[in-house]
Write a structure and sequence with these properties.
- The chain is an alpha/beta fold.
- The protein folds into 2 domains: 97 residues, Ribosomal protein L30/S12 (60s Ribosomal Protein L30, Chain: A, 2-Layer Sandwich); 161 residues, Alpha/beta knot (3-Layer(aba) Sandwich), CATH 3.40.1280.
- The protein contains 9 helices and 12 strands.
- The chain is elongated and about 60 Å long.
- 39% of the residues are buried.
Length: 274
């Protein structure tokens, strides 16, 4: 593994009480950025951060790390070799891969967010399962969504389980946490309708026109969509299911909705429709 001067190794960390290592541990267990930085762990997320052009502030490498990541390519970042027991103690996973980093969190502007032509937003209303939220972020990027809005009560997009499930999409797809549901009014002011997605009520997505700008609301599987969000919704959509299941998993439902929207928009583009 090359260790060029691009990433400067400052010291080898031996103690679990090292201040730098405490910062890493704190951010790995935090729900949001600190001083604009978030923590990531594992080879895939670090490679995705590099591919996404995010600034790598500090890299922590477990001693004797022999993985595929050439961390010397991380630019002018600080780099530390960490004793195995100290590294493992700081990490959030049971079997650390041997590399972690503090990176500059991407910054998204709600105003810019609203200017996108033919927008397709996903609103996550009170989703608390990090695996679902991360999977939806990844799916939304795959099917060309404009971005994601998180209402109060939804798990942080910087939660480690969310980041792992999103598999790097969190670094590229705009994800904005709203302080209050009233911010959804700005979508209405832009003439962007908000559709509540329910289990068996409302129009079928097979019959709905998903080509115009819109926002799709996915609610908590148990509690559904909160009234504070429903008041901004103009219509209800459902996914027709032939089996006797009560409802789909939130991430599965979002995947079906986004795929249907992508298919309709792709067909319209091929046919030259507005």
């Amino acid at each position: 593994m090359s260790q060029s001067s691009a990433a400067t190794t400052i010291e080898t960390i031996r103690s679990r009480q090292n201040a730098r290592l405490k910062d890493l541990r704190q951010l790995l267990h935090s729900s949001g950025p600190s001083d604009g930085l978030i923590a990531i762990e594992g080879e895939h997320l670090l490679l995705e951060a590099l591919r996404s052009g995010l600034r790598i502030h500090t890299i922590f490498v477990r001693e004797n790390y022999a993985g595929p990541v050439d961390w010397s390519k991380a630019g002018n970042s600080l780099a530390f070799i960490v004793a195995a027991d100290a590294f493992d103690h700081a990490c959030a996973t049971e079997s650390p891969q041997g590399i972690a980093a503090l990176i500059e969190a991407p910054q998204w502007s709600f105003d810019t967010f609203l200017q996108t032509a033919n927008s397709l937003f996903v609103i996550l209303a009170g989703l608390q399962d990090p695996g679902n939220v991360g999977t939806i972020i990844r799916t939304a990027e795959a099917f060309g969504a404009t971005g994601i809005l998180l209402t109060p009560g939804t798990v942080s997009p910087w939660n480690q389980k969310v980041l792992r499930a999103a598999a790097g999409s969190s670094f590229r797809l705009p994800v904005i946490s709203l302080e209050d549901e009233s911010h959804l009014q700005r979508l209405q002011e832009k003439a962007i309708p908000i559709y509540a997605c329910a289990a068996r009520t409302g129009a079928s997505i097979s019959d709905a026109d998903l080509r115009p700008p819109m926002a799709l609301v996915i609610g908590n599987e148990g509690a559904g969509i909160p009234q504070a969000v429903l008041r901004y919704c103009t219509e209800t959509l459902h996914i027709p299911c032939t089996g006797p299941v009560e409802s789909l998993n939130a991430a599965a439902a979002a995947s079906v909705l986004l795929y249907e929207a992508a298919q309709q928009r792709s067909r319209a583009s091929i046919e030259g429709q507005p």
